[in-house]
Write a structure and sequence with these properties.
- With about 375 residues, the protein is of the alpha+beta class.
- It is built from 13 helices and 15 strands.
- A 6-stranded mixed β-sheet has the order 9-10-8-13-14-15. Strands 4-2-7-6-5 form a 5-stranded antiparallel β-sheet.
- The longest helix has about 45 residues, at about 140-185.
Length: about 375
């Protein structure tokens, strides 16, 4: 089902990130409050979570760690990952395994060392919650249980944030895929204007909205004059260049709420909500003048093009856009019969009644492609 107006991915991505309040992947989640709680509960001056590399770059939980000693202490605490159970080393200086470690022999002068594993609900280990003191000490059984409980709390926090990060990334990827598929469904691949199906679908909604609120709505139909000659003389690649440049120019000249559609070949439609026919004629003339000033190059030399336009508006009794587009289309072909490079207003009723916006004859003769 088509949504309206077309979604903008960057805006949706921002909304997803705000909705879940999950930091981007390059940001570090600071859980130092958990480390501080463990420090207060167990009277340990230094608490640090030593994590596997996968988690280390985005999650941090540390308290009492000097920035200069952080890497040294983190390397020392990595030894704790070898233990599958909570442990406590009363005096690391007396243990041959630790005695020659830089963190023991120098700053931060580790003496007491304790830790408890960090793991996910399936038991997969991803780090250790470590306690450090520069005085020898031991842990009572009750303190060991507190250490394990704090490790469980930290493990759950890491798992929740990890799951949230992956969930948000999955949502972002899904939104990006949806927007890409939506773009393929509703836009012309060459010009990025609406394709014919989407143009008529959205145009009918604008007609219904205009009639519901009693607001004006105008319709433009336009195409490139002598476009077959452009293809025959300069080649189809040059013709494609002209079509893309025309679409880009019109997009830059109209409002975001206006609907530009490529209806076939070099023919385009433009729906102008909240716009009366006088304003639509002014826009038509401005577009015509802007296109006339474009210059293109090909192996055959420099060339320019002009466009012809038809302008109309829906009647109050018309339930869809087709009748107004048909009048605008007839106005477009009437403009071509009367010399091209002009715009005609075709009001409801008499198709032969037209308001013509001509250029001086000398300009038409010199600038037509």
């Amino acid at each position: 089902m088509l949504t309206y107006p077309p979604p903008r991915f960057e805006q949706q991505k921002s909304e997803v990130l705000q909705r879940y309040r999950i930091l981007k992947s390059e940001s570090v989640h600071d859980a130092s409050h958990i480390a501080r709680t463990a420090s207060l509960a167990l009277n340990a001056p230094i608490v640090i979570a030593t994590l596997n590399e996968r988690y280390r770059h985005w999650y941090r939980a540390a308290h009492g760690v000097n920035a200069l000693d952080f890497n040294t202490l983190e390397m020392f605490c990595a030894h704790a990952n070898l233990s599958d159970e909570a442990f406590a080393v009363t005096d690391a200086r007396l243990e041959p395994y630790f005695a020659r470690e830089p963190a023991v022999m120098g700053a931060p002068n580790v003496v007491f060392f304790a830790g408890a594993p960090l793991s996910d609900p399936e038991g997969k280990r991803f780090g250790t919650l470590c306690l450090i003191d520069n005085q020898p000490r031991s842990l009572a059984p009750a303190q060991t249980e507190i250490l394990k409980s704090m490790a469980d709390i930290l493990s759950q926090d890491i798992c929740v944030h990890s799951a949230g990060r992956y969930a948000v990334q999955d949502l972002i990827n899904a939104e990006e895929d949806r927007c890409a598929l939506y773009e393929l469904a509703v836009t012309d691949p060459m010009t990025k204007a609406l394709n014919r199906r989407a143009f008529f679908r959205f145009a009918e909604r604008e007609v219904q909205r205009a009639q519901r609120h009693g607001h004006p709505l105008s319709v433009l139909m336009f195409d490139i004059d002598h476009f077959k000659k452009v293809n025959d003389v300069h080649g189809h690649a040059a013709g494609d260049q002209v079509i893309v440049a025309l679409s880009r120019l019109v997009t830059e000249c109209v409002r975001e709420a206006d609907l530009l559609g490529r209806l076939g070949g070099e023919e385009f439609g433009l729906i102008l909500p909240e716009t009366n026919v006088d304003a639509a004629l002014t826009l038509a003339n401005r577009l015509r003048e802007a296109v006339r000033k474009l210059r293109f190059n090909s192996p055959e030399g420099e060339f320019s093009v002009t466009i012809s336009l038809g302008v109309s508006r829906p009647e109050q009794a018309e339930a869809d856009i087709h009748a107004a587009l048909d009048r605008a289309d007839k106005g477009l072909y009437r403009a071509k019969r009367l010399g091209r490079n002009r715009a005609e207003l075709v009001p409801p009723g008499d198709i032969e009644t037209a308001t013509i916006i001509p250029l001086p004859f000398s300009e038409r003769a010199s600038d037509a492609a």
